[in-house]
Amino acid sequence: MQVTFDHLVHLTASPREAKAAFAQMGFHAVQGGIHHDWGTYNCLCYFRDLRYIEWIGFMDLNKAKKSDNRLIQQIVTDSAQGAGFSQIAFRTNDIHAIMNHISEKGLTPIGPFAGNRQREDGTVLSWSMLFIRDESHRTYRYPFFIQWGQQDSIRKQEMKQLMQHHHGQPTLSYIGIQADHLDESVQKYCHLFDIPSSLVRYHADRFGSYAEIPAGHIKMRFYESAKLSSGRALYINRPFLCGITGMPQNQTILLEQAIYDFSV
C-alpha cells in the first residue's frame, strides 16, 4: 500500500496553548484554521516530509457532537477521557486505490469524505478522508487516510518556511501506542500495510516493552506496558507518545496528557 505518514492528531483543551508551548521550545508552530462544519479549530507544527502535529480543539462542542465526520466522532468520544493523542493519518495520492486495497483485505472502507478549513488569510484548504470500519475494541484503532487537494511538491514549496525551526529541521520519528492486546494490534497493522512478520522488531525502553513496525515511512511502536504516571487506562488503544529527533538535547515533556520524547 503506497502511503506516507501525514500527521498525528492531538486533542487539546486549547490548541493555542499547545502551540505556544512548542513555540517556547523553538518550534515554528502556527495557527491552522477553523472547521466551521465540525465545530473545531486547530494549530499546527510541520516537520520534514510534510509530517505534522495537529492540535485540535472544540470551538462548538454541540456542533461537533452532531458531526457525521468519523474523525470528529472519535475525538468527541475521546474527549470524555480528556486531552491526549487521538488518531494518526497516512497520506495518499490515490484515495480510491486505498479504498480498493482496504476492500481486498476483507475490510470495509468508509468514505471518502470531503473536508476543508479556512486559513487565517481567508483561503480554503481542501482534502478527502477515508476511514475503515472497526468493530474491535480489543486492539488499536485503524488509522485514517487523507488525500490533499494539492500535489505534495506544491505543498512542500508553500510550507517550506513552516518546516524550519530554531533547531533546524527536526522530524517526527515514531509514534508510541499503548495496546491492550499487543500481538493482535501488530497483526492488524501488518495485515493492513502488507508488512511481513520478519520486519517486526521487539525492544524495550524507559516507557515499556514494545513491538516496532515500519508503516508509511514512520516507526510505530506498540507498547505492552507504558509507564505513565497516572491515568494509564485512559490511553489504552490510543497513541500516548510521539518521538521527535534532530533536537540539540534529549528531553521528555508531558503536554495536554501526551508525551513528547525529544532526542538528538
Automatic annotation (TrEMBL):
One Pfam family matching this protein: Glyoxalase_3
Ranges of residues in domain Glyoxalase-like: 5-191
Superkingdom of origin: Bacteria
PANTHER family to which the protein is assigned, alphabetical: BLL2707 PROTEIN (PTHR40265), GLYOXALASE-LIKE DOMAIN-CONTAINING PROTEIN (PTHR40265:SF1)
Name of the protein in its database record: VOC family protein
Taxonomic placement: Bacteria, Bacillati, Bacillota, Bacilli, Bacillales
